[in-house]
Amino acid sequence: MAIWNERIRARRIEKGITLAQVAEKLGVTEATAQRYECGNIKNIPYECMGVYGEILNCSPCYLMGWEEKEHGEEKTPKILQYYDRLNDIGKHEAAKRVEELTLIPRYAKEDAAFVNAAHADDYAKAPEELKQLEEAMMDDENF
């Protein structure tokens, strides 16, 4: 197995990415992605090399064995790596959860300015989830 094949397989497994996900991003069948990975297809299209780098968060040069350092991993915080793996609904939910954490003094930086709401507490038109969140906050003895 060539270094290219070893590295794309190792990175894919390390990142918890399935062959189906790789195939979808490459625009090929899962069988073709598997043949790229195991070395049955020797001439991988150059377009795929760049896509592999994006999928696996490293440079194509690293994957080809031309560089020893993985570029990207140290640049991208782990939270963003997880975020990138979410679909649109998941990204929306993640943003809501992070926003909620910023409102809890225990998780916020001490120098972060907290903004008091300048609106009425009228949640009559708010989604049920928001109503439940407010009720939970009001019931919290540390609030």
Features of this protein?
434 Repressor (Amino-terminal Domain), 8 helices, 2 domains, 143 residues, mainly alpha, elongated
Structure description:
The chain has helices at 3-15, 19-26, 30-38, 46-56, 60-64, 78-84, 88-102, 128-139. By secondary structure, it is an all-alpha fold. It has two domains: 3-64, Orthogonal Bundle (434 Repressor (Amino-terminal Domain)); 88-139, no CATH class. The chain starts with a helix and ends with a helix.
Quick synopsis:
The protein folds into 2 domains: 3-64, lambda repressor-like DNA-binding domains (434 Repressor (Amino-terminal Domain), Orthogonal Bundle); 88-139, no CATH class. 56% of the residues lie in helices and 0% in strands. It is built from 8 helices and no strands.
CATH H-tier superfamily of the largest domain:
lambda repressor-like DNA-binding domains
Q: Which percent range fits the helix content?
A: 55-70%
Number of strands: 0
Assembly context of the chains: single chain
Number of helices: 8
Main sheet, how many strands, which sense, barrel? none
Counting helices, strands and paired strands, the structural category is mainly alpha
Name of the CATH architecture of the largest domain: Orthogonal Bundle
| Number of spatially distinct domains | 2
Task: Give the class-level CATH name of the largest domain.
Answer: Mainly Alpha
Radius of gyration: 22 Å
Q: Could you tell me the strand content as a percent range?
A: under 5%
Distance between the termini: 59 Å
What is the overall silhouette?
elongated
Q: Average pLDDT, to the nearest integer? A: 81
> Uncertain spans, ≥5 residues at pLDDT below 50?
none
